[in-house]
Amino acid sequence: MSDRQDLGFTPNEMMTIAASRALKNDDVCFVGIGAPSAACNVARLTHAPDITLIYESGTIGTAPDVLPLSIGDGELCDTAVTTVPVPEMFRYWLQGGRISIGFLGAAQLDKFGNINTTVIGDYFHPKRRLPGGGGAPEIATSSREVYITMAQTRRGMVETIDFFTSFGHGEGGVHRQRLGIETSGPTLLITDLAIWKPDPATKEFTVLSLHPGVSRQQVQETCGWKVKFAAALDETSAPSELELMTLRDLQARTRAAREGTAKGKAA
């Protein structure tokens, strides 16, 4: 699969912008680092200026000028409305039902939205150890809804994940309800190729929209399970000039800030 530079944007840019569009001005969003952070901040800088962004370190209402490298990035605290202790963040804000959207990434994902960010291979004899869950397991069960972003690969989108880090829809159907989990779980998956939503009954992710220039074959070739496509398949709207400019400016500021930090340390 080649990127879509000929259309004026890359697959990652399309993914980030499509994800940003899903956010509303009144959302309270628990933000993951990486692609989720980029999407949330593009939304804040375009159509959702009043969105409340919350990071795991306890920063509430943060409005970073550059994308954070981690939840401990000083940019988050410097631009936040307030910073609260992590236990308060989880107990009062997250478990108190005040988070409308939990925005997560994944190293491995299955068709029911279960996420692995812990280990590839056997847990005790792994091929690779990953950063782990952090607060993602709690975000996945306590946020009213969960949005997931990730680039499509057969290694990432698998039939069976190697480790359950964050619970999605389990075995599908009403598995969440059987376990007493009252929140909706994953309601949206946005990749660099398509927009997916869970089937209302089975909870299996189904492709609703292909990004411009993407074929069904490309989606299937980069996914480890048999993909289901909606009967009325849409095409995702291409990024607008404003959306692309906002994302690229944000990324340029981030690169410049990181390069400046690296030069300062070297000196």
Give a verbal description of the structure.
The chain is α/β, with parallel strands linked by helices. It has one domain: Glutaconate Coenzyme A-transferase. It is 30% helix and 21% strand. The chain is built from 8 helices and 14 strands. The protein has helices at residues 11-21, 35-45, 74-79, 86-94, 136-142, 175-178, 216-221, 241-266, and strands at residues 28-31, 52-54, 59-60, 82-83, 101-104, 108-109, 115-116, 119-121, 126-129, 145-150, 186-191, 194-198, 205-210, 228-235. The strands form 4 sheets. It has an 8-stranded mixed sheet with strand order 2-1-5-10-11-12-13-14, with helices on both faces. A two-stranded antiparallel ribbon has the order 3-4. Strands 6-7 form a two-stranded antiparallel ribbon. Helix 1 packs across helix 2 (35-45) and helix 2 packs across helix 8. The longest helix is centred in the C-terminal third of the chain and has 26 residues, at 241-266. It is globular, with a radius of gyration of 18 Å. The termini are far apart.
Structure characteristics:
Glutaconate Coenzyme A-transferase, eight-stranded mixed β-sheet, two-stranded antiparallel ribbon, 267 residues, 14 strands, alpha/beta, single chain
Please summarize what this structure is.
The chain is an alpha/beta fold and 267 residues long. Helices cover 30% and strands 21% of the residues. It has one domain (5-266): Glutaconate Coenzyme A-transferase (3-Layer(aba) Sandwich), CATH 3.40.1080.10.
Strand line-up in the sheet with most strands: 2-1-5-10-11-12-13-14
* Biggest sheet descriptor: 8 strands, mixed
Shape: globular
Distance linking N and C termini: 42 Å
Unreliable spans: none
Average pLDDT number: 93
Structural class: alpha/beta
